Amino acid sequence: MRSKTRKRRPVARWENSSITDAKKTEGFSREVFEIASRQLAAQKEDLKNIRNQAAITSALTGLVAATGASALGEAGLSGHNLPPHILGMGAAVWIVFGFFFFALFFSARVLISWKACTFDHSAKFILDERIKGREPNEIYAQLATESEAFFDQNEDVIKYAHRDLTFAVFCSVALVPAWLLFIF
Description:
Number of domains: 1
Radius of gyration: 31 Å
């Protein structure tokens, strides 16, 4: 009786292992680039959220200022119970005005782009480099390196935007006790 065992086919092995190494390197470079791209996308979302919060802070600042001004009326804004200090207005008026101004100022600094952020790469650069004959793994490695530099530059912008947002929120919240100076 014959055995029904089959012979295994020999596994094809490349004589030149540089082809498989190049594919592994390209895959690794592509993964690193994709990780860096996701980090940049997360940063973009963070900056967008900070700017949305700054817009809300501006609106709340205006609401608090309008509510306080309408509650006190014209007599309240003249600082009737406080002696005039500067330009005929009492200290409480200047405190309210200062908090209002700085809340809007710091919110505007967040909303207006003072420094540029880079979140994407140029498709033209990638195509030009490929046309010049560069290997995809080299291009991915360069893009990953550039993404890391973009990330660091963007972090500084986000840090300052967050700091300005904190100041804006503080000034906006401080408007409430400042309005109370008129009442007591």
